[in-house]
Amino acid sequence: MQAVEKLRLPKASADEADKIEWLMNALSVSETFLQNQAGYKNIDYGIDIIRGRNDVKKPKKLSDVTANRTKRQVREIVATLTNLRPLVGFKTDNSFLEPQAYVLNKLSVAWWHNTFADRKLRKALQFAAACGTGYAHVFWKADMAGGMGDIEIDALGPRDFYPINMSPDYDLDNAYGGIIKTELSINKA
Description:
Elements: H1 2-7, H2 16-35, H3 43-51, H4 69-82, H5 98-114, H6 117-131, E1 135-141, E2 150-156, E3 161-164, E4 177-180
Antiparallel strand pairs: 1-2, 3-4
Helix pairs in contact: 4-6
């Protein structure tokens, strides 16, 4: 029973030292899990291929001209997948709520265009193409829309997200939680 308790997030009333110890343990286990995945060692290599860096030794008699077809193919695939037209629609059978459904439809289309959500999805797919995994982190950002707040999307690479207690089926939806690594200024932290 004690092993299971060690895996659970400490209660809010727990000592700060216990919370930090749990967090550091979860981060360590998650890092080990990620580093043991087959493609983790090849992340930098995949990025180098897309960037056009090629360390293959060629005989001096051959030309140095290269065509980065892989980069072009990745761009085309990502462009195709992110060429989305939002077809979100809110519908109600209650005639009293029809004006609200109309407003929600307008808000969803405005959000899509004002936040450039397709560009954020493109970044996540670029991570997936080059590194094997990319994440779209959807969260509430309080200082958007003139201080009123709005939903934001941030693209994360495979080194920016650490799953906590991943399930045996490797489904992120069934993981206990996740740690997002991000860079902040001292003032924001």
